[in-house]
Design goal:
Layout lengths: L3 H24 L5 H10 L8 H30 L4 H28 L4 H20 L5 H25 L4 H33 L3 H21 L6
Length: 233
């Protein structure tokens, strides 16, 4: 109490410092003989040269980009169309809330299916329909479009987490795929809000940046379908 938003943000620095310390201590832990042999064998398989690994990575990156871009810019878009800042905030909260159910049941469903192609396609279609609604639909139904984007985000994230184990042979490969997909994927996602805002500034319109999201949604659909096939890296 009384520390303000600066103090609230500053508290995260302490948590990051603790995480860095724990990570550093882990790097000093020597490998056992079996781990060393397994790691040497893993070097023969270059995850960065795998098409399946790249499909998972692209799927991971774009679904994250969609979430962070919507989180950053959807309030601005809604206010342009007559919603108050308070109403826009509630609608964005609705998008975030709609991700939660899919975080729980998508992994369960994905694990029961022979392949996850249909889930990858449905994730992309949720994004496509949500963005199309923002582009051409009636803003009386903006809550529905927002929920569709939230559904895509929740489904996409949980499905990506499942791909790490479903597309690899063991825990070592799963960890390697996770590291690749999340490092490159979040780097890609970080460009989304900046690029979206930059395109808006250049065109002075929300149409062009939303078209960018529509194109990325289509790419996500294909990437999800390919990553969802029953293949191993």
């Amino acid at each position: 109490k009384g520390v303000g938003w600066q103090g609230s943000l500053g508290a995260w620095v302490l948590l990051v410092g603790i995480a860095l310390l724990l990570w550093y201590l882990q790097t000093k832990k020597p490998l056992t003989a079996s781990e060393f042999v397994r790691n040497e064998a893993q070097k023969k398989n270059n995850m960065w040269m795998s098409f399946t690994a790249w499909q998972v990575t692209i799927f991971m990156g774009i679904q994250s980009l969609m979430f962070y871009t919507a989180l950053a810019w959807l309030p601005e878009i809604l206010q342009l169309y007559g919603y108050s800042s308070n109403e826009a905030g509630w609608i964005v909260s609705l998008m975030i809330f709609s991700t939660i159910p899919f975080m729980f049941f998508i992994p369960v469903v994905a694990d029961q299916l022979k392949n996850q192609v249909i889930l990858g396609v449905l994730t992309g279609l949720s994004f496509i329909l949500g963005v199309l609604g923002l582009l051409y639909g009636s803003y009386s139904y903006v809550a529905i479009y927002t929920i569709l984007i939230g559904v895509g985000c929740g489904s996409g994230f949980s499905l990506t987490m499942m791909f790490f184990s479903l597309r690899t042979k063991d825990g070592f490969e799963a960890a390697e795929l996770s590291g690749m997909a999340q490092s490159f994927g979040y780097l890609l996602a970080a460009t989304g809000p900046v690029l979206f805002g930059g395109i808006h500034d250049l065109t002075n319109s929300w149409t062009a940046p939303l078209m960018m999201l529509l194109i990325l949604s289509i790419i996500t659909t294909f990437a999800g379908a390919l990553a969802g096939r029953r293949v191993m890296i």
